[in-house]
Design a protein that fits this description.
mainly alpha, two-stranded antiparallel sheet, globular
Length: 292
């Protein structure tokens, strides 16, 4: 009996989860973005994914991966679905629509442009949705990621406390069962806690001040639903710990440099640096094989 495809199973469950969160966000939670912005981000991600797949298939003289039935198309678009909804959920532009299209297009295009040879295939090394948000905010300073309170401002006191716990438990389960990225989560959470405590010590503040952000919905979503993207993170547990720790280190340096939105920039910098190092390693191996 063949083993189940945990990657596909994980994508399906992440897609369902983020869909439910977005629907609840617009109906109950009090999301700042509009339905129109969500659909613009979503359909731009779909269109970009399909167009790039057609171009790549023709260039390599192969069939498109979304052909073969409705379920093939749905499974093919799962990654784009997740990226589009993440962009619509985490980016704030007032009433503007085009920034959502731009961020979604960048998110999907980054998967096609920044790739590494892995096990006789090519895999992206940038986190798609994070890349789209980070570059959009960097290029258009008037825009920003959403504020954490949008996830609970429409809830009662008791429900606003239960909602983060539900997201936390679900995130732990999916990253344990499907993505296998709990060591990465541990590395990031420990590094964030350490840098928070150290900054409080340096500024003579109560240690709890540096740890409170870890209880927010924004931190939970970033930790369990963005950082853990299997395509752009290491597989081995030791490398995952280092990867997560480096995100925390870079984040702390950005905070000390008074750079806003450090979560997104830190993840982008670590992913890009990892991809660059892997590219250099691959080039060195190719050069060695040619001379040996």
């Amino acid at each position: 009996m063949s083993k189940p495809d945990l990657r596909l199973a994980g994508l399906r469950r992440f897609a369902i989860t983020i869909s439910v969160v977005n629907i609840l966000g617009h109906i109950v939670l009090g999301f700042e973005s509009s339905w129109a912005q969500m659909f613009v981000a979503l359909f731009t991600a779909y269109a970009t994914e399909i167009v790039l797949e057609i171009v790549d298939a023709r260039a390599n003289e192969r069939a498109c991966r979304f052909t073969g039935g409705t379920w093939k198309l749905i499974d093919f678009l799962l990654s784009a679905h997740i990226a589009g909804l993440a962009v619509s959920m985490l980016l704030y532009t007032g009433e503007l629509l085009l920034p959502f299209a731009f961020a979604s297009a960048v998110a999907i295009a980054s998967k096609a442009l920044f790739r590494l040879p892995v096990d006789q295939s090519r895999r992206h090394f940038l986190n798609p949705s994070n890349t789209g948000i980070a570059l959009t905010v960097l290029l258009f300073p008037a825009l920003s990621p959403i504020m954490p309170w949008q996830f609970t401002e429409g809830l009662s006191t008791g429900t606003s406390r239960a909602f983060p716990v539900l997201l936390l438990c679900l995130g732990i389960f999916m990253n344990w069962r499907y993505s296998k990225r709990l060591p990465l989560v541990l590395g990031w959470v420990l590094a964030f806690a350490v840098q928070g405590v150290l900054r409080c010590f340096m500024n003579e503040l109560p240690f709890i001040v540096g740890l409170i952000p870890m209880t927010g919905v924004g931190f939970i979503l970033f930790t369990f639903y963005m950082v853990t993207d299997p395509g752009s993170t290491p597989t081995h547990w030791r490398e995952q710990l280092i990867f997560g720790g480096l995100i925390g280190l870079v984040y702390s340096l950005l905070v000390l440099a008074q750079v806003s939105y450090g979560f997104y920039y830190a993840l982008f910098i670590v992913c890009f640096s990892r991809g660059l190092l892997l590219h250099l390693k691959a080039a060195k191996l190719r050069a060695y094989s040619l001379t040996s």
